[in-house]
Amino acid sequence: MKSRGKTVHSKEQLKSKGVPACNQKQTLHRLQLNFQKFQNPKTKSLSKSNILNPHIPSLSTTLHLSVSHTLDLHTVRNMAIPSPSYSLATKEPASGSTTYCRKQKSLGLLCSNFLSLYNRDGVETVGLDDAASRLGVERRRIYDIVNVLESVGVLVRKAKNTYYWKGLGAIPKALEELKEEGLRNNDESVDCKSGKVWEDDEDERFSNSSASFQEKADPDSMHKSLGLFKSENRKEKSLGLLTKNFLKLFLCTPSDTLSLEDAAKILLGDARNPSLTRTKVRRLYDIANVLSSMNFIEKIHHPETRKPAFRWLGMRSQNQSQSQTDSKTGLVHPESKKRAFGTDLTNTNISFKRNKMVLDVGVDQSVKLGVSHSGSDRLDLKDPTGLVDGESKEVKKSQDWESLASTHRPQYHNQALRDLFVHYMDAWSSWYSEVAEMDPIEAV
DNA sequence: GAGTCCCGCCATGGG
DNA sequence: CCCATGGCGGGACTC
Fold first, then answer.
1. Subset of residues 230-259 in chain A with CB less than 7 angstroms from any atom in strand C
2. pLDDT by residue (tens digit) across A59-79?
3. Which site from A40, A169, A352, A367 is most exposed, i.e. has the minimal number of CB atoms within 10 Å?
4. Stated in angstroms, how far is A431 CA from B13 C1'?
5. Is the CB of A49 under 7 A from strand C?
6. Which Gene3D superfamilies match (predicted)?
């Protein structure tokens, strides 16, 4: 018997088959979102998951129960629907398309938009309701973003519904603390600094991904050795905690790649329960979406097994031998072929294959983040730790990017793509000119 | 078919 | 009791 979830098996739950009082506030907005889907013939989710789902009251019932008992279908259909979520990033005119697209709803994209909304001068606090309404999503999604951002120090809880905005500049310190904590605990057991567990040939590690960790390191001992936070009660199972633990895996080990499967096993505690693993994996995807949208990590695949894995980008700028590692491991970076956790800004109206050479190097950074770089919290997210050894490195890198961007303009035959690219180039140019004028230290 | 991850139900805990 | 929070897993979507 499930203790939670959607199975209806109690008086209380039956009663709540209407609309729970505590959820009524969100119901109206949910209806608006549903009708966005409803209006789009492409989507199947309303009919299948929202109407046929036995756990969700039928549409008419929901309307009757929750929308002041007065709204009919016609009224709701004609309600002023807020501008489509994510219009910030898609650059779609708010009034343009009501097309529902899964990609446009991704957590990564939401995170980008969240950052672009708040990463600016003068922002001191973030209200969850405000964020939800401005981003056009339900509060539930904001919690997901906020939990992850809190783990990396961007936000600090102030009161209910309110967070202090610490900004991207707080990330290096937060990561350092996580790293110290992980290494401190690590001293007692496995010597991670020497890389006993991780330094093995990546190929070998990936060659048997299904058993890689059990053979090379017991997930339980790995869990202890990194001082990962225990997840025993509800609070301690939070997404934030999982994020911290996930980050520690990268921060405290010499390897910068980790398979999804291994991550789930290490972070899990009990690696023997498949359904628990599946749940955990879902959460890892959630976290990875947010972290990848901030360019902390990227998604990769084993070339043969195609098993998913993550690669840490945070320290990459310090690690000049990274490219050699790539050739050594033979890992594929499918970013150019496949959407990366929904962080792709493209919407489905434009089938947009990225031009890896330019977008990956520079333009993609600013656009993908959608961050306005005019604030005081400027930070190169390619190096979230901020541990850049040469102060001019940043500027030099920017110059490299600029020259690359200027010399490798792709020739798009599609007008839409051309326009899009021009837009990205403009964004990049303006960002670059700002950075170039900045104090190099401030830039870090 | 496996991988990905959106969505929202509903349990929990604080006020 | 109300409300904020967020764990959790169904199932749609994507490759």
1. 234-235, 237-240, 242
2. 333 333 333 332 333 333 333
3. A40
4. 45
5. yes
6. Winged helix-like DNA-binding domain superfamily/Winged helix DNA-binding domain
